[in-house]
């Protein structure tokens, strides 16, 4: 059976230059191209290929539990729905269960309890080689005994696609990720970035329902990493495939994701788009993991007036919860002492100058407070300066421990 | 100045070691071409001992026995040892101390103890069941038992050297269990299998003690024949056999070296 024409068109290299792209522009400009995922199975007789065409698939998890040995709980009841065509990130510290969850999606690990459906089909008991799911491994796991071309063709060959079609698909994907001239190389002749792309291509060439990525960028240096972040995002938007991405890096998660699930101790702490998770963390763990340090217990409430170690602050439409979160970038530092609502007298104890902005550590009475100021040509307060911190009521967020 | 003297004496030591290792072999090779019967004086070049060799039915059958024994036992040991090596790899996280010792034991056990035990065992089995009459069959079994640990350890160490995620990548890329063996595991451990085969083969051809205790009247191998012949006095014919064996081993060594070079290139 021939490769579907729409697929051929989807995988071309004419693309927007990488540097003109930001995550937001991609997100708003391009719609998921679900029609590009049409894949005609090479071997329709084999059971896992019974659907001859496929769209991006949703993933439904219900009550997933996983325990290693007696004492280590990796997953403690995970319920989660990942929409079709979504770039979804599992975020958390090491040992939070994110990798275990990914491995359960891949079928490399079996859940002790719970159900998993991909594209509406229950795959809880289906072995990995019968799932239309492919993984980009952290170590890339390229086969050392095969050339790049043979690595790329491995999945298609295992599914029984005839050699000519296989070669055509491999050539196309190699061109798509701009590695066409490397296909004859051996794996150990490639750089880290090239291996990463080959690993991605080896998974993508199978046109799976879902692509799983296990910290695929963590072994790369910062520059290459941000370049590949953009590339990965572009690939996902072009193909409209469901991507499930695992990382412990909250910046990476925010840049890449449509939605993020923050995990800790095998439990999902919060699920939401990056802005929501960053600006309205569900609890103290999420807040700290997203990099927030300005968390203060609320000792008393009087309507919108909150009593905290910083003093009494007025909020606006603050929610429930006994913790106050103040994001450092919402603060303003005014020179000298100024009286007023939501104004706090402070002393600068530390300043980290970062060029585009400066990070401040301030002393307010007995407590410390962190603030970030954009470097907009105004005078940046120095260490030792007396300043007044100004907080806008609408920027105050409350949450529970 | 001092450094140069040291370097020169080290170079000298190197040549001395080489001479120590290879001079005896050179002497054997030289005398295999001796025109006279003497083991002391070289009187001229001749092919006569080699011609005598080719006409000697006993030697030819001993050679054939050696080859059949080496090839059959190496192939069996390769299959069984490979499975054991993979099993050791799969269960490497369990406590396997006693099992590893059991695997190593045949390697460290003196050949003569091993040979005598095998012989006693085969005699008992033969007495009770009528099977396992001493001969090529019992020799093959005995050789396989001492080759297995080498094969298992070589295969095991190759698997341990692999990125464990490769196994998962093969599963993830739609390979069924059978296809994983054919398209991933066997090709990946091929270099280990080749060197394990050559090692088993050499061990088998070299072995005298274990073969001696487990052989039957019809199944003399080359080493056994040589040992028997030497009892009647050293004939230059023996030198010719020894020289051929040296040549054969050298050729095998060169082939396996070329193989491993090509893997690395």
TrEMBL record, chain B:
Residues covered by the ABC transmembrane type-1 domain: 63-259
GO cellular component: plasma membrane
Keyword field: Cell membrane, Membrane, Transmembrane, Transmembrane helix, Transport
Classification via SUPFAM superfamilies: MetI-like
Keyword Methyltransferase attributed: no
InterPro entries assigned to the protein according to its UniProt record, in alphabetical order: Bact_Polyamine_Transport (IPR051789), MetI-like (IPR000515), MetI-like_sf (IPR035906)
Protein's membrane topology: Multi-pass membrane protein
Family indicated by similarity: Belongs to the binding-protein-dependent transport system permease family. CysTW subfamily.
Protein name stated in the entry: ABC transporter permease subunit
